[in-house]
Amino acid sequence: MTTRTFRITVRGVFDGLTPEQHAELQSRAADHDVLFAAFTPEGHLAYDLNARAVFTFRYQDTGEAEEDILDATERAERSARAWLDERGYGYKNLRSQAEDLSQAPLGKRRRRAAREV
After folding, report:
1. Contact 29, 49 (CB under 8 A)
2. What is the mean pLDDT of the segment spanning 59-64?
3. What's the pLDDT at 18?
4. If we measure between CA atoms, which residue out of 93, 56, 71 comes closest to residue 4?
5. Residues 78-102: what's their mean pLDDT?
6. How far apart are the C-alpha atoms of 82 and 57, rounded to whole Å?
7. Which of 93, 101, 98, 100 is nearest to 11 (CA)?
């Protein structure tokens, strides 16, 4: 059986941040810039509080079967909640979206390479 790669995006909105929490997030904004967002096993947080109070965690996980994406999504959501809860950051509207890369359509270059093989 082949290993499947999943990309899970967990989005939400910061809610009820204290002025100190807001300042702390602002001071670390460069570490969480959306321009450097990446899917990682430990999760990458991106936000831009100057634009909006939204955040996105990006996770990469793996599984053997198509249905493993459900467990991967649950792990990502638990991880995002834990990160926020550990720091006391309020949040709302948490939602997730997952993609199985083995099911993703091939781009133009990959389609051409697949035909040549």
Report:
1. yes
2. 96
3. 96
4. 71
5. 96
6. 12
7. 93
